[in-house]
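User: Study the shape:
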Amino acid sequence: MFIDDCLKGIDLIMNSEILEPINLGSSEAVTINQLVNLAEEIGRNQLKAQLRPQRAKGVNGRNSDKHSHPKYLSWEPSTSLRTGSKKTYRWIYDRTGSRGVRTGVAREAAAVTDKL
């Protein structure tokens, strides 16, 4: 879920009478392969995705219970994964100067992905 939608959802929850935990998230399902393809498209770069079948496996996809927050809040996130990813990419790119410079967020993200 894109940060603007997340903040809106949290604000709605905090100003509601909801007392029990609810799922806050997008109902847009995505696989890891779809996410990699989207990142490649947005970044205009071929990623070196390495499948590691020996590692523990979870569910095939993740998304929130889309019936929870609309029922309580009459609201759903409005930013698609594609749009939010493009905005996030642009935000990181603008702060790192260029693709070749690994500073701040980009350097930290690279360090994490190098270990995976």
In short: Residues 112-116 have pLDDT under 50 and may be disordered. The CA atoms of residues 13 and 20 lie 10 Å apart.
